[in-house]
Amino acid sequence: MNRTGKSPRVGEVWDRVTPLVLVVGAILSTAGFVLAFTLAGPVNGASVNGVELIGGQMVANQLLFSQKIFYWHVPVAIASFLALTVEAYYSVRFLMTRDAAFDLRAQVATEVSFVFVVAVMVTGVPWTRFEWGVWWTWDPRLTTYLILMLLVIAYFVLRAAIDDPERKAAFSSVFGIIMFVDVPICMLITRLIPSSVHPVVFRTDSGLSPDMLIPFLLSLFGMLCVVYGLFRLRLRTAELSERVERAKELLDEE
Predict the structure, then answer these.
(1) How far apart are the two ends of the chain, measured CA to CA in Å?
(2) Do the Cβ atoms of 2 and 98 come closer than 8 Å?
(3) pLDDT one-digit tens code per residue, 18-41
């Protein structure tokens, strides 16, 4: 593998704005989560005494808690899909150019996606428990997302199992593209299988009233900023580590 003159580099304007983007992401995500408990219906204030009829709906603390998880769970899931989309793009770019810079970016994007994939599973389990009364159910979306998490783990196992850098990058890129195929399946499965008990989140009318849509969008844009910031920070660290390793190799050859 080599680096061409057109290889993407770190240290440009995208990296200089990364700390600011992370701060904005943290603020937006926090604001969205706080507003989910203070603004969004059906219960303002995040507590009810027993079970109460609010807006024609019987609301209990369990339902309240599961509903508030939505404002974290869904944005984190979308962020994981974005990271895997970036991974697939750079995997394709590597196979087209054999440029090590693209393989590094695909690897970093997968590392970032793993953080968000685990967060999705962690937040999804209590949602399942409070909404459906069980800790796990083989709902189509849950099942396809579990497969996605296992594929992400398998990606790192594959990289660790191959020593040759070029073969490692090539095999990982092909596997990364195959792994990405599960992303649109996860997103569309509730439409493909309407009997799924998992709700359809993406609708033309959003399905959310303004008091629910505002905190959701704040959390969503906040998470997208966070995933971008983490990707750039990790990429910069990985790039610097590679430069150090190359410098050591040159010194050893002298």
Answers:
(1) 22
(2) yes
(3) 889 999 999 999 999 888 877 776
